[in-house]
Give the backbone structure.
Amino acid sequence: MAKKKSKHEWRANSFPAAIMVGPVSLWMVLLVAIPLIYVGVMSFCSIDQYYNVTFQFTLENYTRLMNADYIKIYVQSLVIAFFTTLLCVLVAYPFSWLIARTKSKKKKLLYMLVIIPFWTNSLIRIYGWRTFLGTNGWLNTALQTMHFTDGPVDFLFKQGTTVLGMVYCLFPFMVLPLYTAIEKLDGNLLEASADLGAKRIATFFEVVLPLTSSGIFSGCIMVFIPCLGFFFVSDILGGGNADVIGNLIERQFQSGNNWPLGSALSIILILITLLLVKIYQKMGGDMESLGG
């Protein structure tokens, strides 16, 4: 029988692990666990006539979430997130394939094109799109100069413009997991499929797509979930005509001064996130792939 470790030996072995894990655990407790608990408690609180938070237990905040105006925004959020995710997949897949299958030095350049946007704040970049698409922006100036239009076209403050902004911000989050999945694809399988007489389209749907489905799904989660909370994109490009759930939360904490209701909306958004991640795990997804 193996000799049982002494108390001194157990402490000696566990101390280095505690040194490594301790700071990370403390960081997670302070910046993740405690704020989540606070938001959860706040979601069951009330406000008085002066909009001060009172710690009186109530379910009113959650019942108010079934308001018809809120439901309209929930549906609108899902529609915007769906089309944003769909466009990201359609655009990012061939781009990721190009990066993964490029063998020359251009591969690093293409990969850098995905990383470079992270060097600039997304809020500044969205304001750039607003300037570009404005009635006096470069796009309208070019269209009028080439006589495609007689006057300025109003591109801003529409749902389609909001989707464009979402795709622009979240496109890299779709490329990175797709690139990882495609790069792991064994080229011998493609050659075997061709040798057996399969056409390229058949090879793509029967071989490539199933083997890269994990990258597609993880990319969809990394795009769909943030899209529900990117309130600044819909504020700047949508002008209040394409609100998402994040806009509701932001207004409750800012102009509405109703922190309990904003907390309840935040909890719902967190539950949606956990549900999607759970579905991903049930489908055999690897949590590491969500990190890109």
Remarks:
- The longest strand covers residues 46-47.
- The radius of gyration is 24 Å.
